[in-house]
Amino acid sequence: MSHFLCKLRPPRPTFLSDMTSDEALVMRRHREYWTPRVEIGAVIAMGPVADPAGGYGVAIIEARSQAALEAMLAADPAILSKRGFSYETFPMPAIAVRPSLPLSPIDSVTP
């Protein structure tokens, strides 16, 4: 298996703060598409990045090959929406991942 850093570029730098209701629906479908892959461990981590120069999404994905990764990315509802989203991908030749840890009682308390 190979690991990749994937950067989802939105249609404009201000997207995270000014997405329309239609774009929010696309983002909901995007999240629903990726969530099962997080749950099975194919996606190590994912989420939006609030970069002052312009927000974007990032994910670390484990895939059998570059072709398998590209197939997953091409099926992303954000890409299929044809609203100007695009991915940049970067192979990660070595990766260290901490094991999953159970939540302690203190971790489940919200301040």
UniProtKB/TrEMBL annotation:
A family per Pfam: YCII
Boundaries of every YCII-related domain copy: 11-90
Transmembrane regions: none
Assigned protein family: Belongs to the YciI family.
Annotated protein name in UniProt: YCII-related domain-containing protein
Originating species: Roseiarcus fermentans
